């Protein structure tokens, strides 16, 4: 966890600092007790944010992201910005968690204190996504990239065929890793069109192998900014749908029952880097290949409740705080409304720029999380990124494989941050068009 986000002086002056409301041991009352009760302010800057009218009603709380003059608007694709209310809650509990006498970072992962943390995190995630009882929830390590190998090792034999839909770099990486452990087929790839679209489901239905053990998709491609708005169905009645949801996990409601496995690195929407969440149907575990490393065996991880070895305890704790925050916002339906509102404002600014800014992605599948765009005058892109950084808007440079710019506007990116970016874009255009 970045110490820049914490007040070390405050902790040193208050070595036994803790929230006083812990007698109730109520997570929701704790979060509420530290939330700002009045409007927040932004330190004066040269770019003014105009109010953007909208007819969409959302349950907007004060945006704590803008309350500190020391914080930037972080548009990074991951590790990404976290809710400031969550960071402040973590700060208050950093030195001593409740009445444990120690930090979460010092706890035994098998002790009652950490067990209460991980169990509450799982319970809240189940509530958020309405996860059925017939699914395990695992908190693992190694990033989503490790799951590229774990999936075929657990679900396939070497000769089993599986289908991959490749809509971007991460889908391509998942396919290439699966080649080591089963017989995967790329049934559709958007590479020839620079990953700017998603195939129709009728097209996929014709392309699928009726004997494929599973159908794998990446629900949102972080680099290229394409997102599945709905999900295909495996042609094999005994096959399962698997989704890498790393960059849009918990950004909107999802019908978990349509999937055999959902997996996601936490560092986009639900926590810091270090923990990967796997939601897997219980009947799919227990058939791992003999060569499967013990740490990649879903059965072993499920039997040990994600505690076979020491897990990323503090990252799991942070995820738990984010889950509480999402529930307090009204759940994922309300979160999705906010995400749609932010994305609409940014995409509209691009579309209304008369070609000065361009988004290459087909409109029907543009991501609500990652917005790539280029400048008509590509030689100005470096200046755009440099000037934006001076206005405390950082990490806007596009991925090295595609260039341009990319604004990642995950759950924790405030509406104020998007409005400031749009105001800057319009000002930049007026000076360089």
From TrEMBL:
Annotated metabolic or biological route of this protein: Amino-acid biosynthesis; L-serine biosynthesis; L-serine from 3-phospho-D-glycerate: step 2/3
Biased composition of type Polar residues is found at: 53-69
- Gene Ontology terms: biological process: L-serine biosynthetic process
Q: Where is this region: Disordered?
A: 53-72
Q: Which enzyme class, named as a word? A: transferase
In terms of CDD domains, this protein maps to: PSAT_like
Q: One Pfam annotation, family name?
A: Aminotran_5
Q: GO molecular function of the protein, one example?
A: O-phospho-L-serine:2-oxoglutarate aminotransferase activity
GO CC annotations on file: chloroplast stroma
The reply to whether Chloroplast figures as a keyword in the UniProt entry is: no
EC number(s) recorded for this UniProt protein:
2.6.1.52
Which residue numbers delimit the Aminotransferase class V domain? 72-421
Q: Would I find ATP-binding among this entry's keywords?
A: no
The record's function comment reads: Involved in the plastidial phosphorylated pathway of serine biosynthesis (PPSB). Catalyzes the reversible conversion of 3-phosphohydroxypyruvate to phosphoserine.
Q: Which family does it belong to?
A: Belongs to the class-V pyridoxal-phosphate-dependent aminotransferase family. SerC subfamily.
What's the protein here called?
Answer: Phosphoserine aminotransferase
Species of origin reads: Acacia crassicarpa
């Amino acid at each position: 966890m970045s110490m820049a986000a914490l007040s070390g002086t405050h902790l040193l002056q208050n070595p036994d600092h803790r929230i006083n409301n812990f007698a109730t041991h109520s997570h929701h009352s704790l979060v509420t007790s530290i939330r700002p009760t009045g409007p927040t302010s932004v330190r004066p800057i040269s770019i003014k944010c105009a109010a953007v009218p909208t007819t969409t009603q959302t349950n907007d709380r004060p945006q704590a992201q803008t309350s500190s003059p020391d914080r930037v608007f972080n548009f990074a694709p991951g590790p990404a910005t976290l809710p400031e209310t969550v960071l402040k809650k973590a700060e208050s509990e950093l030195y001593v968690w409740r009445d444990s006498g120690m930090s979460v970072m010092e706890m035994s992962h098998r002790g009652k204190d950490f067990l209460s943390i991980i169990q509450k995190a799982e319970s809240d995630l189940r509530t958020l996504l309405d996860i059925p009882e017939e699914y395990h929830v695992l908190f693992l390590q190694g990033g989503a990239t490790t799951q590229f190998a774990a999936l075929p090792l657990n679900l396939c034999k070497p000769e089993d065929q599986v289908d991959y839909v490749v809509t971007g770099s991460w889908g391509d990486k998942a396919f290439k890793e699966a080649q080591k452990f089963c017989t995967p087929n790329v049934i559709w790839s958007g590479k020839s069109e620079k990953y700017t679209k998603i195939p129709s489901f009728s097209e996929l239905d014709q392309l699928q192998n009726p004997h494929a053990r599973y159908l794998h998709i990446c629900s949102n491609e972080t680099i290229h900014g394409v997102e599945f708005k709905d999900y295909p169905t495996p042609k094999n009645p005994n096959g399962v749908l698997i989704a890498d949801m790393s960059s849009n996990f918990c950004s909107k409601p999802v019908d978990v029952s349509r999937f055999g496995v959902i997996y996601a690195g936490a560092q986009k929407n639900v926590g810091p880097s270090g923990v990967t969440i796997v939601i897997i149907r219980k009947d799919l575990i227990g058939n791992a290949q003999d060569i499967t490393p013990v740490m990649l065996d879903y059965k072993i991880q499920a039997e040990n409740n994600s505690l076979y070895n020491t897990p990323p305890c503090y990252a799991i704790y942070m995820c738990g705080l984010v889950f509480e925050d999402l529930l307090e916002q009204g759940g994922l339906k309300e979160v999705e409304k906010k995400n749609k509102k932010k994305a609409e404002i940014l995409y509209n600014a691009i579309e209304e720029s008369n070609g000065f800014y361009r988004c290459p992605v087909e409109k029907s599948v543009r991501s609500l999380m990652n917005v790539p765009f280029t400048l008509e005058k590509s030689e100005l892109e470096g200046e755009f990124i440099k000037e934006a950084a001076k206005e405390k808007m950082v990490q806007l440079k596009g991925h090295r494989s595609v260039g341009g710019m990319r604004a990642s506007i995950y759950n924790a990116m405030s509406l104020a941050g998007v409005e400031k970016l749009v105001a800057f874009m319009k000002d930049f255009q007026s000076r360089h068009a």
